[in-house]
Design brief:
heterotrimer, A alpha/beta, B alpha/beta, C mainly alpha, A: alpha/beta, 7-stranded parallel β-sheet, 4-stranded parallel β-sheet, 20% strand, B: Rossmann fold, Rossmann fold, 6-stranded mixed β-sheet, 17 helices
């Protein structure tokens, strides 16, 4: 992480000056996962919004958005983008790191400028720039918040997403903070697959198994929905805090309205970084410049005070 | 080249049931043996043990004086013992050449030697007299040709003992003649042949000796020439089968028409077929395989598309569009393909019997007791031999399966019943039972239509016989004109 | 074969065929004992009711699936179908609820679920019988279509039931009668009706006959196309019932709703002893199979002896063991 910047607002751009590359027409391909759950739906929505905004502002720019249902399909799309759409710039949110490294390297080999979003490639020489959310903060901030809210002691159960490096980063960050608070015990952490139904079932079983739970780290706003329903059904009053994550609009709304006392904070991991990545890349290319090698869009703690800054009612996420 | 066999004390148990009880006999090399016995006599089981498909529970088999126990058919084939099943063992989608070498593919290095196999297959086909290209997919062949492919396959395995299970069951007379010529040639080449058949006239013609089995035991081995057909039948059944056929009792001349068909056409099969069957009549249909007899009746009951034709049951014209409608109007059709179209071999006897008429037992819930009672009645009425009423249909012998199938298609109480090859693969005793049953049905005033490739059967049973050739009606012969020569002449177009 | 003494033994034969079907039940009992030993909380009434309640969706669908598989068919689309029905229900109820009575909106939504399910099933049936397309392909196609359409309706996010409607509707999932949650009652009723339909009606027998050998059934004057179409409709209806129980649980539908339900339902049917190639099967076995599958994950959640990474492996092993116990019939 060479530079950590705040790049939420459109005007703030930290660019290193690149070679004297002639700014001509930019054809920018965007390759992202299809909208199969609300987070990726947000990615798709923000990508399309970036296309609309940027093409309107820059007549010399053409943005092509492609969605793929799995890694092989995404690899095929890369070839299509290159040969059919003749792109000279690519912004890609890879399905998987390992299996897409080679295909992306090939695209880069043809002289295309490549920005990789969220999931880093295994060989960083296959990319020109990397823009990502902050998974460490995604685990660290809730841990710090919960430790404080619980006064340094009590029982926590956690949910995990789908077994991936991204999930591991978050969970490792969470546990490393908790190690500093010996009074807090993580009773168990099981996979809820970032899915409401699975989170509901896992929570039901946690409630059967543990008689005293003070807080739940749901680690995702979708999973938090299932967690809350399961707690309501069991009529358990011992759980004081449920911490979701990612700042989905429903969760932010609850936070703003204060409609559920168990929801007091959230952590941002907005699919809006897709918008930022496209915008940063496009503007840099139009100006004939390069992006820094690593750009981290930080995750921040959202509370009732700053919640309205993170509320995007038009986005599906 | 030839090979001799000796069975000593061979027993076979299927679970608690013993089906072979210490079989002892020997076969000399280079002769043609007829193996006779009713269905369930144990001939097929014994042959499966000999050819490695089953293992004997006790006893031993000596081949050329050496005790052998084949663990698989492949091992038996290695020793020159090849069994040709009644239901062929051919992969329908593969070519003739691929079938002949299936499991014994010739290779050149790592790769298949297709050209070599095609060449060898062509030689074998020439040897069996089949004029077909070795690259023809087997599904395009007719039954008789498939039979020849099976024999060619056996030749390619260098068979020294060839076992044929009912090889002529589906062949026309002409095809049968060609098969017999081939058997003669194989014998001349020194191949020992075991020929299993229910057709005693064939056994009489082509075998040197007959071996008779009954109830899992060896009964007799005699020179064929020393026995008459009725003696053979008596040995098989263990009692005197003096007359196979009941007396013919034709319907009264003024009996009403039960089924009238006019101008029936089935695309690709039948052209302009018209006939009328009276109530109480047994009406035969003769013709070669592929003459369109089966297809005509499948079209009449609505299983197959008709392009023209009017059908009337008891004088009432109907547009029969499916078998259910035909059944409701008193017409049922029992297919020649017992296991593929006639019975659910994996279901129980009751389920098979009542399948067509379930609404009779459902008011609205099925009454298992009523169904059970119906089965008991059918078992008695049709003489179905089974130890266990809860058995599945596949556990019955061929003859008993056929009786169950008859019971099933008679259960809706049809006024017209079409029986396609009703005695195929059925032993002598069961055949006789079925002939008498057909006579009884006619006597009750039903019209019975019998499609058969066994001319003796048509001649012995029917009041009238229609002969089809290539989808066209050639002649309708009345009882007094029914002879084998007449029927063959019309069926082959040499009249 | 020589005749075995007549006056057969249908009684013990019957018992034997029953016994051969208890493989899954033995597996379930063994699992329950293991669960109790690992965590005594497993055997509490609350936990068992939780398990039964969450089994209800898959279980109800699996009952319908039993008919389809028995007849020699398959339906891969049920999970997506449930998601789409849930989405349509929610939009429809929100729409009605905004202008009129909430009770009316909820009841209309329930009716819509049943109608949509049967209609989707009937469409499958028509494509398979009249269109002569393999069921695998037809339902693989609709699997994509249903889910994509829901994703489109939900804009990729979640469709959520309005608060007032949600409160009114939620007792359908969370409520109890005589201490037993409503979904469990419905599951029991569907299973009972399914068993009766399969074993004691002409329709059930025809389904079995078609699966055992379609040709023979056709020759035996059974309306094969009609019966097949009915099995797919019946399955669709079951999906509708499952969905109307599902919606009040979370009050929402998203593109992940019902994900992989088809595999769970098919696994429940097959683990329960129904032959995937058709012709043989039992509703009772299916019910046991469905419960067994959710008990496995319940036990895994209640214990921490196995790495969470291996959860799927444990399920796989148990499924294979149970299938092994009821093989060879």
């Amino acid at each position: 992480m060479n530079s950590v910047i705040r790049a939420i607002s459109a005007g703030v751009l930290a660019l290193t000056v690149g070679s004297s590359w002639a700014a001509e027409k930019v054809t920018l391909g965007v390759s992202i996962p299809a909208a199969t759950h609300s987070f990726t739906a947000g990615i798709v929505w923000w990508a399309n919004k970036a296309k609309a905004d940027l093409e309107k502002a820059n007549p010399g720019l053409k943005v092509i958005v492609k969605t793929a249902a799995n890694a092989p399909e995404q690899a095929n799309q890369l070839q299509d983008l290159l040969t059919v759409n003749k792109i000279n710039t690519l912004v890609i949110f890879p399905f998987e790191s390992a299996s897409l490294t080679k295909p992306v390297a090939q695209v880069k080999g043809k002289g295309v400028y490549v920005t990789v979003v969220d999931r880093g490639l295994t060989d960083t020489s296959a990319q020109d720039a990397y823009v990502a959310g902050d998974n460490t903060a995604f685990g660290k901030l809730p841990a710090e918040y919960l430790a404080k809210a619980m006064g340094g002691k009590g029982n926590i159960v956690a949910l995990r997403g789908i077994p991936t490096t991204l999930d591991n980063e978050r969970y490792d960050a969470f546990t490393s903070v908790m190690k500093q608070h010996p009074g807090i015990k993580i009773l168990d952490a099981k996979y809820g697959n970032w899915n409401r139904d699975d989170a509901f079932k896992v929570t039901q079983d946690y409630l059967t198994r543990f008689k005293q739970i003070d807080a739940v780290w749901a680690a995702d706003d979708d999973m938090a929905v299932g967690v809350l329903k399961a707690i309501d059904q069991a009529k358990r009053k011992d759980i004081k805090v449920v911490f979701g994550g990612a700042g989905a609009k429903g969760a932010i709304k609850t936070l703003m309205d204060g409609s559920d006392p168990r929801i007091q904070a959230n952590v941002s991991y907005s699919p809006k970084f897709m918008y930022d990545a496209i915008k940063l890349t496009a503007e840099a290319r139009l100006a004939g410049k390069k992006l820094p090698a690593n750009t981290i869009i930080p995750s921040v703690l959202i509370t009732k005070q700053n919640a309205k800054d993170f509320y995007f009612p038009d986005s599906p996420f | 080249m030839s090979l001799s066999v000796r069975f000593s004390g061979v027993c076979k148990d299927f679970g608690p049931v013993r089906v072979l009880h210490g079989v002892d006999f020997a076969l000399e090399p280079g002769r043609v043996y007829g193996l006779l016995g009713e269905n369930g006599a144990g001939k097929s089981t014994l042959m499966k043990i000999l050819s490695g498909y089953e293992a004997a529970s006790e006893g031993e088999i000596q081949i050329d004086g050496e005790s052998r126990r084949f663990a698989s058919s492949r091992e038996a084939e290695g020793a020159g013992v090849v069994l040709i099943h009644q239901e062929f063992n051919l992969a329908e989608h593969l070519t003739i050449a691929q079938n002949i070498f299936l499991g014994h593919e010739q290779k050149r290095g790592w790769l298949l030697d297709d050209a070599g196999m095609r060449r060898a297959a062509t030689e074998h086909l020439a040897a069996v007299g089949l004029a077909a290209d070795a690259d023809t997919p087997v599904r395009r062949l007719i039954v008789a040709e498939k039979q020849l492919v099976e024999i060619a396959k056996a030749l390619s395995r260098k068979a020294r003992l060839l076992i044929m299970d009912e090889p002529t069951a589906t062949l026309t007379p002409g095809e049968t003649e060609r098969l017999f010529a081939l058997i003669g040639k194989l014998k001349a080449d020194g191949v020992t042949i075991i020929y299993i058949s229910h057709k005693l006239d064939e056994v009489e013609r082509i075998t040197d000796e007959v071996v008779v089995m009954r109830d899992g035991r060896f009964v007799a081995r005699e020179a064929t020439a020393s026995l008459t057909r009725s003696q053979m039948a008596n040995l098989m059944v263990g009692r005197d089968v003096s007359d196979m056929f009941p007396d013919k009792a034709p319907p009264p001349p003024d009996a009403p028409a039960a089924l009238t068909v006019q101008g029936l056409a089935v695309p690709g099969w039948v052209d302009d077929l018209s006939f009328e069957v009276q109530a109480g009549e047994i009406y035969g249909f003769a013709g070669l395989v592929g003459a369109g007899r089966t297809e005509a009746f499948e079209a009449i009951v609505g299983l197959r598309e008709r392009s023209a034709g009017r059908i009337a049951l008891a004088g009432r014209e109907l547009a029969l569009s499916n078998p259910r409608m035909a059944m409701k109007h008193g017409l049922t059709y029992l297919s020649e393909d017992r296991k593929g179209k006639g019975l659910h071999v994996n279901l129980g006897l009751t389920e098979n019997l009542t399948l067509m008429t379930l609404e009779r037992y459902a008011q609205p819930w099925l009454s298992h007791t009523a169904e059970h009672a119906a089965l008991k009645q059918a078992v008695e009425g049709f003489g179905i031999r089974t130890g266990d009423l809860a058995a599945r249909a596949r556990m019955l012998s061929g003859g008993n399966q056929q009786k169950l199938a008859l019971a099933k298609f008679l259960h809706p109480d049809p006024r017209v019943i079409v029986l396609d090859e009703p005695t195929r693969g059925v032993d002598v005793g069961a055949k006789r039972d079925i002939y008498f049953l057909i006579q009884r049905l006619a006597a009750e005033g039903r019209a019975v239509i019998v499609i058969s490739s066994e001319l003796i059967e048509l001649i012995g049973l029917c009041h009238r016989v229609a002969v089809l050739r290539a989808g066209r009606l050639q002649a309708v012969l009345t009882a007094e004109h029914l002879t084998e020569e007449e029927l063959i002449a019309h069926a082959t177009g040499t009249h | 074969m020589p005749p075995v003494p007549t006056e057969a033994l249908p009684a013990w034969r019957h018992l034997l065929s029953r016994l051969s079907g208890i493989g899954p039940l033995l597996g379930l009992v063994a699992l329950c004992i293991a669960g109790t030993l690992l965590n005594p909380d497993f055997a509490t009434v609350d936990n068992l009711l939780n398990v039964l309640t969450r089994t209800a969706f898959i279980g109800i669908i699996a009952v319908g699936m039993t008919f389809v598989i028995m007849s020699g068919g398959i339906d891969l689309s049920v999970g997506s179908m449930a998601a789409l029905i849930a989405g349509c229900m929610i939009m429809f109820m929100n729409h009605l609820g905004a202008s009129g009575s909430a009770v009316l909106a909820v009841s209309a939504g329930i009716v819509l679920a049943l109608v949509l399910g049967s209609a989707f099933g009937a469409v499958h049936g028509v494509l398979i019988t009249k269109g002569r397309i393999e069921p695998f392909i037809v339902t693989l196609g609709t699997l994509g279509i249903f889910r994509a359409y829901l994703t489109y309706l939900a804009d990729g996010g979640a469709l959520t039931l309005d608060g007032a409607l949600s409160d009114l509707y939620s007792p359908v999932y969370y409520g109890s009668v005589l201490g037993i949650p409503i979904p469990v009652w419905v599951f029991a009723a569907v299973a009972l009706a399914g068993g009766l339909l399969l074993n004691r009606t002409a329709f059930g027998r025809h389904v079995q006959a078609i699966g055992s050998n379609e040709q023979v059934a056709r020759y035996a004057a059974i309306r094969v196309d009609f019966v097949k179409l009915a099995t797919y409709s019946l399955l669709g209806l079951c999906v509708g019932i499952a969905t109307l129980l599902y919606v009040p649980r979370l009050g929402s539908a998203s593109p992940t709703t019902g994900l992989l339900w088809e595999l769970e339902a098919i696994a429940a049917v097959v683990v329960g002893g129904t032959a995937l190639k058709g012709g043989e099967g039992r509703i009772f076995g299916t019910v046991i199979g469905a419960i067994l599958l959710s008990v496995i994950s319940n036990i895994l959640n209640l214990t921490s002896i196995i790495s969470v990474y291996l959860n799927a492996a444990v399920q796989g092993v148990v499924i294979i063991i149970v299938a092994f116990m009821q093989r060879g019939r």
